[in-house]
Amino acid sequence: MIRFDHVHKRFPDGTVAVEDFSLEVPSHQVAVLLGSSGCGKTTLMRMVNRMVDPTSGSVWIDDDNVADLDPVALRRRIGYVMQSAGLLPHRTVADNVATVPVLEGSPRRAARRRALELLELVGLDPGIADRYPSQLSGGQRQRVGVARALAADPNILLMDEPFGAVDPVVRRDLQRELQRIQADLGKTILFVTHDVDEAFLLGSNVLVLRKGAEVAQSGEPSQIMAHPADDFVAEFIGGPRRRLHTETRDGVQAVIDAEGRVTGFVDQGAG
Amino acid sequence: MRWVVANWDQVVSLALNHVLLSVLPILLSLVLSIPLGWWAHRRRTARRVLLSGSGILYALPSLPLFVILPVLIGTQILDPLNVVVALTLYGVALMVRSCTEAFDAVDAGVRDSATAIGHSPGQRFRVVDLPLAGPPMLAGLRVVSASTLSLVSVGALIGVPSLGYFFTDGYTRSFLTEIIVGIVGTVVLALLFDALLVLAGRLLMPWVRATDTRREDR
Description:
The complex is a heterodimer of chains A (about 270) and B (about 220). In chain A, the strands form 3 sheets. Chain A has a 6-stranded mixed sheet with strand order 6-7-8-3-9-10, with helices on both faces. A 4-stranded antiparallel sheet of chain A has the order 2-1-4-5, with helices on one face. A 3-stranded antiparallel sheet of chain A has the order 11-12-13, with no helix packed on it. Chain A has helices spanning about 40-50, 70-75, 95, 100-105, 110-120, 140-150, 170-185, 195-200, 220-225, 230-235; strands spanning about 1-10, 15-25, 30-35, 55-60, 65, 80, 155-160, 190-195, 205-210, 215-220, 245-250, 250-255, 260-265. In chain A, helix 5 (about 110-120) packs across helix 6 (about 140-150). Chain A has about 270 residues and is an alpha/beta fold. The model of chain A has no long low-confidence stretch (mean pLDDT about 90). In chain A, a hairpin with a 5-residue loop joins strand 9 and strand 10. Chain B has a single domain, classed as MetI-like fold (Orthogonal Bundle), CATH 1.10.3720. Chain B contains 10 helices and no strands. In chain B, helix 2 (about 10-40) crosses helix 9 and helix 7 packs antiparallel against helix 9 (about 175-205). The longest helix of chain B has about 35 residues, at about 10-40. The radius of gyration of chain B is 20 Å and the shape is globular. The model of chain B has no long low-confidence stretch (mean pLDDT about 85). Classes of the chains: A alpha/beta (about 270), B mainly alpha (about 220). The interface of A and B includes residues 87 and 135 of A.
């Protein structure tokens, strides 16, 4: 379980990134922080592994206030995946995946064996183990990033726009892969994104954030979609793009959005 | 050539001396510049002092420095240590800037992610900053190596034996062959050192070649 208790963050230059934020992410659940850039969502995430310390308020993991934990030890037991994957460019794929186990004193050979297993788990050919990150595609790098985050078998994963830098097709693959892994492993995941579809696909609980990490609305995806709390949320999750109706066009039932554009067709076999 | 054969023993012994006098300053300037460069990379005041200081240091003419050093550090005037200390100063003067800029150039995102996954500050320095700063540092060290090998010759003027002796001796005797031997010998040593440094770089930093995008032969 991750719990934010009235956290507030003011940076030394005076900008307030987080006004007053509270949240509880139950164990084995995926919570998504959804908002545009600069809304404070990354700052919130980085409070969990103490990359940022809140100015006031506290962050708890189970019964521990993270402020009382050693930051290095804390970070090693939390998986972290970021947008550019953040891999070490001078270490091979296997060494990258094995980073945390090796830092924790695991013997090299065991760490390598584990790294190869993890590559398979995230859908990669273990044959790429001795390549360097720059020799991989963007999608492969992100998978390696996920494998590395899982290496020490953490209970918690922090994912900061992990699929933001890859093309839409690869992104969908990665999202499906993450769902599959999550179904197996049941981690507690805090996921940050500005992509509405991604948030609604992955999150059991989604928080739409305004500037200063103010929660505009939180709840299950279907609930937010059906009943946006205000214009800000409605606009953010798609506005007219989400208000759909059907018309018959060229003899088939077409789905039309509020601006009159065809966005899809009703599947005649369904229902 | 006949002169070289006749004086082969002297050529070898002076070349050896030349090497010994150069190796220590080259290694010392690397070892000293890494912490200084890290310091300058981290602290703005240290950067200002070290980088402008090193510029001034390098501008000092070498011969007066060789002469004045014994007074400053209490050595004999003919002590080879003077040459070693002076050349280390020049090496550091060049190398501090290389190291500072090498640390500056390490990708901030990589550094940040290394911290985020649990490297302690010391581990991050050893596993991330130092190796990633390695290639530009090596480039700097190759300059230091060439510069040191040529500056060692100046020591001959104060009687510290090296291949530079052939310049002074050849000059006083107006004997061109001897001067040419001195020059060629110094150049050969400089090339040899450079090759060794490049080789060491390949062994210590295997990723540089493996990921070089200019070699599209995969």
